[in-house]
Amino acid sequence: MTYDDNNIFAKILRAEIPCKKIYESEHALAFHDINPQAKIHILVIPKGKYISFADFSKNASKDEIEGFFKAVGKVAENQNLVDDGYRLLTNHGVNAGQEVPHFHIHIFGKQPLGPMISKI
Ligand code: AMP
Questions:
Q1: pLDDT at 119
Q2: pLDDT tens string 3-62
Q3: Which atom of ligand 1 lies at the shortest distance from residue 12's CA?
Q4: How are strands ordered across the β-sheet holding 86-89?
Q5: Which residues form the catalytic set?
Q6: Which of 38, 42, 44, 43 is nearest to 110 (CA)?
Q7: Which residues have any ligand 1 atom within 6 Å of their CB?
Q8: Quick one: which atom of ligand 1 is closest to the CA of 90?
């Protein structure tokens, strides 16, 4: 699978479509999810072209990985999510229902988040 330059997050990174930006650094961009599933639902994406966590963890540089995960932590802290708790989630591939083929981490918070996954 090759990276699709026309995926929606690639367009957000190129500022071709807007987002509700929360935080930006050299390696990451964070913005509100357009269809929030919790009181706080933020997406953090790397600036590099990585399809999913599998691609990012295998192919991103140490600087990109460090910069990205530091950004996730910083966003959670800046949004005051640390004391009450929050959840991180990333979907890779079909079984996980990944919709956008640009690696992203969801941050959920500001409410009890229920069971980790739905029962099958
Ligand atoms: P996933 O299923 O993990 O690929 O999640 C994709 C997420 O992207 C969903 O939660 C969508 O609501 C969200 N999303 C799709 N388009 C946009 C957009 N233009 N701005 C912000 N979030 C979006």
A1: 77
A2: 999 999 999 999 999 999 999 999 999 999 999 999 999 999 999 999 999 999 999 999
A3: 19
A4: 21-24, 28-32, 40-46, 105-109, 86-89
A5: 104
A6: 38
A7: 8, 19, 33-35, 43, 91, 97-100
A8: 3
